[in-house]
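WARN  no MSA supplied for this record, continuing single-sequence
INFO  ligand: nicotinamide-adenine-dinucleotide
INFO  echoing inputs
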Amino acid sequence: MQSLDLPLSSDSPERDSLVQGCDGGPSAAGCHAAEMTTTPVRYGIIGTGMMGGEHALNLAEIPDADVVALADPVESSLAWGTACVGHPVATYLDHRDLLARDDLDAVLIASPNFTHSSLLADVFETDLAVMVEKPMCTTVDECVEVRRRALDRDALTWVGLEYRFMPTVSVLLDELATGVCGTTRMVSISEHRFPFLVKVGNWNRFNVNTGGTLVEKCCHFFDLMRLAANANPTRVYASGGHDVNHLDEVYDGRVPDILDNAFVVVDFDNGVRGALELSMFAEGGRYEQQITVVGDRAKLETTVPGDEVFIGVRDGSGPVSVSARMSPAVTYAGFHHGSSFLEHVRFIACLRSGAPAEVTVDDGLWSVAMGAAAHRSIDEGRVVHLAEYDLPV
Ligand SMILES: NC(=O)c1ccc[n+]([C@@H]2O[C@H](COP(=O)([O-])OP(=O)(O)OC[C@H]3O[C@@H](n4cnc5c(N)ncnc54)[C@H](O)[C@@H]3O)[C@@H](O)[C@H]2O)c1
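INFO  complex generated
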């Protein structure tokens, strides 16, 4: 079994702990060699399009994982998923046949957003651990119900918000936790990227299927904002629209309703202010994401992609660079700079040890609620208070 004992970027024990946990060695999650079984964790994957295949490619690089079954109603997706797994695997057109197997430890849901709620309901009838891709669901109400049911069971429920495991992001969060910034005051995230890709059946062309761009795409950034602010949001104001992309596409007589640019301002309950800037017609730039956290003592800044975090203390000494390179222990970088690999390493560590999920159903709920509030703000032209949603958190 490969060693996963390398830090992401420095010698800090916090970073060491992120990559430990599935090598038989001690981990922060309490995973001890004596407790390890010799059988890898057996996964079933539900939904084997782009992201299901990406998960399979990651899992193929993790010795303590084995994908044994796939489910997808589209044959060509099953063929793609099988190719990504890299060895013969059982395939099903109906996920219920996969769930009926008696040899699974965990399922991964990587189907379109609008299917997550009902698929999770079926998984919750079993005792299997589950990782569900982001967004947890397309609406706040669905997330509230999923959270209620997930908290009612013993098995692990993990939401696939993997950005926190990206090298530059995790180093930024570690540095923030040292207190170097003093009291955090502002968190700003900008995403400038390419338009939405084509998906199987074009499901991502309509808000009813995705939850809306600020849910579908930006739940990642609202999750990071909450982590950096170390607080929950109270109100949201947003301006956005559908101005450039997909305007010449027609599906069954309908033009897509995808929002492709927005500014979102968020107030947090500890006084931190957050800002998100999204453009999905800006693929010509240098970075996809830029993340800045400003406290009363210093500013932290980083990018994705990137391999540095800059700390700028307010003493005139100029920014200091902290290395944030991907650990060589991450043997598959994939589409997300090694973060999907790390999320599975951590998921498996939690599954083995019985530790709670590191990315929780509360994280899933808040990140969707912030996106939904931003859409409501755009639609109704007003500030939206999160209290309007009567969230159980
Ligand atoms: N975490 C990330 O960074 C990230 C990146 C991309 C996509 N995603 C998420 O992954 C999920 C899948 O996105 P994608 O890009 O792979 O889309 P996709 O269209 O490429 O693949 C989705 C697959 O799900 C299948 N499917 C549809 N209904 C199903 C059902 N009821 N049961 C099983 N399979 C079903 C489709 O046939 C298709 O093969 C979405 O929730 C998306 O938001 C996450």
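Residues 185 and 271 are 7 Å apart (CA to CA).
INFO  checksum written, moving to next record
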